[in-house]
Design goal:
Strand order of the largest sheet: 1-2-7-6-3-5-4
CATH superfamily: Leucine Aminopeptidase, subunit E, domain 1
Strand content: 15-25%
Number of domains: 1
Largest sheet: 7 strands, mixed
Order of helices and strands: HEEEHHEEHEHEH
Number of helices: 6
Radius of gyration: 18 Å
Structural class: alpha/beta
Helix content: 40-55%
Bound molecules: ligand AR6
Number of strands: 7
Distance between the termini: 45 Å
CATH topology: Leucine Aminopeptidase, subunit E, domain 1
Amino acid sequence: MAKPVDSDMASRMASGMASRMASGLKIRATLLEGRLIVAVGDITRFSGDAIVNAANSGLLGGGGVDGAIHRAGGPAILADCRTLRATTLKDGLPPGHAVATGAGHLSVKRVIHTVGPVWHGGSHGEPELLASCYTSSLAIAASEGLDTVAFPAISTGVYGYPREKAAPVAFSAIRDFLSDHPTPSTVYLVFFSDADADVFLAAL
Ligand code: AR6
């Protein structure tokens, strides 16, 4: 027969569960003195100040995490993207750049859209462009006072950037930005699976 669980134990279990599941995501590791959290889950469930979208230059939606963000956020995000394309971004958003929109139904204030590089073997500026995605997105967060920001693993899906090569680029860009800026106070790197998070952690 199972042992009865006393109330102290029940509350310890509940609080442990809460910390492992903060912001709707499973926490896998905490780095950079608590300012970088490696998590697993669906980034559209993140509750905080901003989510970063791995978009394309057209900014009008797509597959992968881009499709998931537009589906979960609803039409307000696409409406903001269309306004940008009609005004300041007539030629689209270049790789390595970032721009913010509203977040529709998501549990964040802003979506920061960035365009990662397509992987062409690594000698076509891919690492610099990938680092620039993280840095440009973080610069928007800092300038808008967005304190908790979640990133997906930019370029590592449809755009084909090898996960183990993207990991140190993402980590260094985030570390360098945070060392110079108090905002955002906390960055989440959200992987879609435990296996993807394992690759990231092993590659550091
Ligand atoms: N939550 C967290 N991570 C996710 C989710 C999710 N809901 N869905 C996918 N991922 P990708 P890219 C992971 O392809 O490589 C789109 O069509 C996924 O496992 O979304 O930058 C755009 O419109 C992968 O690790 O983005 C562009 O055309 C990571 O997110 C193009 O894809 C990025 O995969 C951009 O390609």
